[in-house]
Write a structure and sequence with these properties.
alpha/beta, Transcription Regulator spoIIAA, six-stranded mixed beta sheet, 4 helices, 6 strands
Length: 141
């Protein structure tokens, strides 16, 4: 994957935009809290013009290495997602959330409930399923 846009890299979140596929990839690690989500959304906000100029096709959030979701993350994720949606009008982008176990799946479902935009989001089990979902979303829409 070619990332020509600056990469976000920290102990708890890594993110990069693949200019060839048009997909923004985000991987979380360890404990997912408000600070981690805030850092990600701040990076996306700073990069939005550059990323949009390359043609975003979708977003993939990989939650498989998350061991715990802190409650404050839900509020921050909902608030930041709403604000970013208004700025980017990125509601048109499909979003895949990759989970590896039942706990992650349940927390992803809660996140979908609080962000109020589940028709463009899908919970999947692998990167292959995530990319297939993004492709099929465009075929349907």
């Amino acid at each position: 994957m070619t990332a020509t846009i600056p990469i976000l890299s920290s102990k708890t979140v890594n993110a990069h935009f693949d200019t060839q596929t048009g997909v923004l990839f985000v991987s979380y690690y360890g404990v997912l809290d408000a600070s981690t989500s805030g850092n990600l959304y701040q990076w996306i906000e700073q990069m939005k013009d550059v990323v949009d100029s390359h043609g975003v096709r979708g977003l993939v959030f990989d939650l498989r290495k998350v061991v715990r979701f802190k409650r404050d993350n839900l509020y921050t994720a909902a608030e930041q997602s709403q604000r970013l949606s208004e700025q980017l009008d990125h509601r048109i982008y499909p979003i895949a959330l990759i989970v590896g176990n039942y706990y992650q799946e349940q927390m992803a479902k809660v996140t979908l409930l609080v962000t109020h935009d589940s028709e463009r989001r899908e919970i999947v089990r692998s990167m292959e399923e995530a990319l297939t979902y993004i492709g099929s979303w465009y075929a349907r829409n």
